[in-house]
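Retro notes - structure team

What went well: the batch runner handled both jobs without manual restarts.
What didn't: labels got mixed up in the shared folder, which is why I'm recording both outputs here explicitly, each with its sequence directly above its tokens.

Job 1
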Amino acid sequence: MSFKPNYILGASSVTVFLDGKTYTINKQAPSFNAVISALKANDKQKLQDAVDIRTGIAKALQKNSQSVRIENNQIFYNDREVTGVIATRIFEVIRLGLDVNPMIKFLENLMKNPSKRAVDEAFGFSEACSLPITPDGCILAYKRVREDYKDVHSATVLNKPYKLFTAEDMAVIKATQGKRGEVTVSIEDGFTTVSMPRNLVNEDKDQTCSEGLHFCSYDYLKHFGGSRIVVLKINPADIVSIPSDYNNSKGRCSRYQVVDELEVENNMPTEPIPDGYVDDYAEESYNGESEEVKKESAPQFSRKISDFYAEMIREMLNEKSLTEIAKHFKISRRTVARIRDYEAPYNN
């Protein structure tokens, strides 16, 4: 007897009933096309392989992760069972057939955090504040800074994205920063990296304004001053505490990377960080910039884009949006806006 599958195709998913179990596969899932193909072919084995995502992921984890494994309905990090919000979210990602690797890498990073309290707080913070996770398992958050990119509190720490650096900025970061010289600013993987000794960061969540490198959620931005807003990439291993005020929407860490700047209008970003997994700032996805941009962003140069390309961008603004141009040249929207408005260093 030939196999006839039982299924229904919805607006955003397909639901299959197979061997007494119901499987719902989201259209965004990598396995969606394989499921549809198996349904068209009336091939039971191919359909079973396509819908049984958890088994496939469990097998893949055995090859790709030395620390995380899935057994039946349990997730383990080494010999420790992972429960709570993060386990629920991992299984939800698996159920939808989405890429679970960013969550697995996030878990691996998180478990390297030496503080149990920080481990307990970190995922709840990113979940509650809708902060995206990068493919290499870090979170993206916000920070307000002054017009000169110095931190608002001490006005001593430079938080400027490296792609906007001038020769003068390179000289500035060679000096120790912070009120007591406890902060180091360097360039790593093409990004401005800010760090301080972890044991100098206050780990008490009930002391809401204290020592440490600060970051926040989108909603917290309206509670804090600072004319610019930068995007931070934070490894959960470096999170120290999530202060309890403002519904746990800000945090302190010992290290972050400044990966971008957001355009500000009416004191808030014109476009928040996108939801979901963000590829732009994963370590393995960083391939540097184009040769023209590399040349112009080298420390001995004071400009990010040459005069030739700046004029080209101004002409393109007649037909394309800031976002389209920024993606085309692999620069930030803020840089495009600077060129448009003839702001320094594009005012000659």
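Job 2
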Amino acid sequence: MDGFLYIDKPAGITSHDVIDRLRRLTGVRRIGHAGTLDPFATGLLVVGVGREATKKLGGFLGQDKEYVATMVLGGRSDTQDATGKITPETGAAMPERAALEAAMRKFVGQISQMPPMYSAKKVRGRKLYELARQGQEIAREPVTVTISELELAGYEPPKASFRVRCSSGTYIRTLAHDIGDVLETGAYLESLRRTAIGGISVEKAFKLEELTSESWPSRLIT
């Protein structure tokens, strides 16, 4: 068996946890994924099953990604999301919708992002989140990413939901954090869902509980 499974990852587990479950389910050891999702995030995870499929996973890594997300204004998080230590921004006034949309427009196009310390990015062979958990913060180089679409989907202060289409390597947590900086309110990400990778929609994905040892081969995309 060799091909791809489109998985709708649930919240609360890592992308590697998904791989471990699929190894047990399929009996196949050579399994990998294209593009890590944070444990609190949900959505599309492209999984390669078998030697030939895993070799082709790199073709998905550089493709644009689409997400829907919710950020909370009026506070900051050391992880830039709701799983971290939240510090309220005392006295921050909630912006009007027009001001929020104007701030978001500043991030459309090619932008620079500072990789967050709580990320899997490696610096000098060490994952940043490993250093962060030890209380260390080290110098990082900014990365250039492209936001092709960014639209406000709903706004009920202090929460704002949005949809974003972006280049590979974009940190949506950092995008929310940086929007909060522009607004001078602070912001952190509350929820994140990946809805597409390139032309593949999460609507084509299966939940883990929908797969069985008998049914998974029929779900393979070859």
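One thing worth noting from job 2: Residues 65-197 form a domain with the Pseudouridine synthase fold (CATH 3.30.2350.10).
We'll revisit the folder naming next retro.
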